[in-house]
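user: Here is a favour to ask of a fellow structure person. I have my own habits and do not want them to colour yours. Could you put it straight underneath, so I can go through it closely?

assistant:
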Amino acid sequence: MLPVLDKIKRRTRREVLNILLIQNGHDHYCKHFAHLDNVNIYIYNGSSWSIPQELTPANFLLIQDTGVPFVGCFDKIICIGRAREAQVSLAIQKKFGLELILINNSSEETYCPMPFTFQIKEKVQMSPNAQVSMSKYLGQDKGTTILPIGEHTDISKKEDSVVIFNHAPAQVVQNIISAYQGSQFLEFSPDTLSGSKVFLDTIVGLTPHLIEAMSYGCIPIVPYCREVEKLLEGKGYIYKDYKDISPLIHKALASNTSQHEIRKIADSCFTDKQDFINKWNHILGRSI
C-alpha cells in the first residue's frame, strides 16, 4: 500500500520542520503554510496540486509519483480529512511513529463529498496528536480553529446567471442539469463567479469552493448539511432533493439579497495572516 514510504525516517533535528502533507482539494488553505518560518512542506500525491508551479511557494516539494521509492525524513504529518487521506496518514503514523496533526474539513455528520444516492465512504477513526478545524461551524469538541487567510476578490455587476460546481461526479451534475428547466448553467471559474448572481453547489459540506463563490457575492444554493445551514443563516437556499433545485433557482434570481451581504458571510470564514501564523506555530510546538 505504501511502497513510497518504505525509507521514511523520523528526524531528530528540529530547527527546520519537514512536514508531510496529505490532502486533496484544499490547496489554497495549504499554500498559507509558506508564511511559517523554517518549514518545508512535502505534498504527498503532488499530481493533484492545482496551483501552478510558478505560484507554488519555494518551500513546497511535490511528490509526483507515489509508486516509486522516495527517501525522506519528516517530523510531522498534516492530514486534511478522514477518507482516503486519513487511511494513508494513519498507516504512516503507525509504521513510522510520526506525530499526526488532523485538520477537520467536515462535521461528524458530513464527511462524504457525494450527495444523496451515492455510497458514503467509510470514515477512518483516528487518534491524532493534535486536531485543527478549518471552520468554526464544524462543531468539533476538541482542537483549535484556524481559519484560512482572507484574500481579496473583486465583485463586479451581477447578471441573472447561475454558476454550477461542475467538478463533481458526472452523474450528479447531469441529474441537476436535468432537474432544472431554465437557462444554461455556467461552469465554475473566478470569471463566471464574479459576474453571476447565483451559485449552485453539487457537493455536500462547507467546501472551499462554496466559500470562494460567496466571496464573489454569489447567492448560494446548496445541498443540505447542518454546518452550511448555520453559516448561511437564511441568506441562501438549501435543497434536499433534485426536484427542489428549479424553484430555488428562480427564488434566488428574484431575491433582493445583495452581493455585499453574501460577501460579509464569506468574510467571517477567514482570518488574518498573523493569527494564522500564531496559531499554527502553537500547533507545531513553537513558541509565539
Notes: The radius of gyration is 20 Å.
